[in-house]
Amino acid sequence: MAKKITKICCIGAGYVGGPTMAVIAQKCPGIKVTVVDLNQARIEAWNDPDTNNIPVYEPGLAEVVAEARGRNLFFSTAVDEAIAEAEMIFISVNTPTKTYGTGKGMAADLKYIELCARQIARVSKTDKIIVEKSTLPVRTAEAVKSILQNTGNDVQFQILSNPEFLAEGTAVEDLHAPDRILIGGDTTPEGQDAIQSLVDVYSNWVPRERILTTNLWSSELSKLTANAFLAQRVSSINALSELCEHTGADISEVSRSIGTDSRIGPKFLNASVGFGGSCFQKDILNLVYIARSYGLQQVADYWEQVIIMNDHQKRRFGNKIVKTLYNTVSGKKIAFLGWAFKKDTNDTRESPAIFVADNLLNEEAKVAVYDPKVSEQQILGDLNYLQSRNEAKNAELVTTFDNAYECCKGAHAIAILTEWDEFKTYDWEQIYQNMTKPAFLFDGRNVVDKKKLTEIGFKVYTIGK
Ligand SMILES: NC(=O)c1ccc[n+]([C@@H]2O[C@H](COP(=O)([O-])OP(=O)(O)OC[C@H]3O[C@@H](n4cnc5c(N)ncnc54)[C@H](O)[C@@H]3O)[C@@H](O)[C@H]2O)c1
Ligand SMILES: O=c1ccn([C@@H]2O[C@H](COP(=O)(O)OP(=O)(O)O[C@H]3O[C@H](CO)[C@@H](O)[C@H](O)[C@H]3O)[C@@H](O)[C@H]2O)c(=O)[nH]1
User: Fold this and answer.
1) C-alpha closest to that of 231 among 316, 164, 313, 296
2) CA-closest residue to ligand 1 atom 27
3) Is the Cβ atom of 167 under 6 angstroms away from ligand 2?
4) Are 89 and 7 in contact (CB under 8 A)?
5) What ipTM was predicted for this assembly?
6) Global confidence as pTM
7) 338 lines ligand 2 (CB under 6 A)
8) N or C: which end of the chain has fewer CB within 10 A?
9) How many CB atoms lie within 10 A of CB 132?
10) How close is the Cα of 372 to the center of ligand 1, in Å?
11) 9 is annotated as an active-site residue
12) 316 has binding-site annotation
């Protein structure tokens, strides 16, 4: 018999744990959902009386949190208590690329997952369903199971894999109406019961035919595969954008032409300065590492090319700026519009803006940044993390603005790094008047009207055109 879930705990109150649990709580008022994290500042921000100050910016999220928080949604640092009382525990901690030891720069670092499993094993006194929400290498559930089943007490654990497919910037929309929910579990009767318990949670708002169930390993691998396919599309279109620039073809026209083939489809064909975000690169590197560890060199090399192409795209955008500005940007103000890795998020992880800025700072440019949702502290932190130069130098060369018009004043060039909608509505005439001439604009996201801006006087470079 599938157990009816009334208490859920989620370990990890980040970009996935926060929004997913907020929506579960919103849609399942009969379930008490407690989201826990070791990071006290983050929990305090989730509990801020003004839901506009919650730590994750996502359209519509503040409203969902306002509806459920304090009713059946709670944020807390009391990890042990929340684990002890829950019937179902989601593990939603970060699984970054390893920065040390074997697999450095490639494999997923599973230390936080293991810590969670050990903590659950230590604290649990009643049977529990453990749900892997984090993105994990295929066969991780085996390790989690091994830790949990060797606890020395007779608590029964079932492990499920339930990867998250939300994209940042549309998280609430994606969670409200997902293309599919994927649940992997053991093929034993107990495993099937656990799957059913989680199906019952999602069935509160997701049509049953959209809930797919598989074995554990298919579910774990499907998450890496989905991201690899999506990133591959971006690298494919970006590869062709460079060919367009040499042949007179226009990448937007090429995208539209191929996207109308129903087998290809129109989505995810926007040429850009490169993909960013915390997932694509990390998950593909992990996939490449797993393939290599099974001796599958051709498989590994195939997928690695997606990353190689992306690095090339980011590098060539920065190089284009330097080359166009008469081969030197030393001492020149370059205004960055956008720092987040995509619009409608305050997340900057692996944002192409960081790498383009780093490239230009190596050339001694003065980088001015405006992003509607990213703070100065975050921008400098992202650059300092690269350790390309000392922190004082970054602080000297980088200035941030809370107004795009001020940011662009006196600049030799503007670089658009994020496709924020507001950039389309600017008074470009006014911006042009206040820039150093010739005024260059490098559109890394195909957001501005090239023809109109060229008429104003800008020298415009757009990717793939
Ligand atoms: N960001 C996305 O859009 C997205 C989408 C789908 C899947 N994922 C996957 O979900 C997972 C989480 O990603 P994220 O972006 O939410 O990460 P995140 O860094 O925003 O959040 C993770 C949180 O876990 C906390 N944490 C780590 N170890 C802990 C422990 N032992 N106990 C309590 N808290 C702990 C951290 O303090 C942090 O707040 C990753 O595996 C990621 O690949 C992310
Ligand atoms: O046509 C496109 C589409 C996307 N991008 C870029 O690709 C990156 C990733 O975008 P997106 O996939 O929309 O955002 P993420 O939040 O990274 O979401 C991806 O990664 C998540 C974490 O695993 C998954 O859950 C999602 O399904 C998957 O889309 C961003 O820099 C985008 O600007 C392009 O350059 N061109």
Assistant:
1) 313
2) 93
3) yes
4) no
5) 0.98
6) 0.96
7) no
8) N
9) 25
10) 24
11) no
12) no
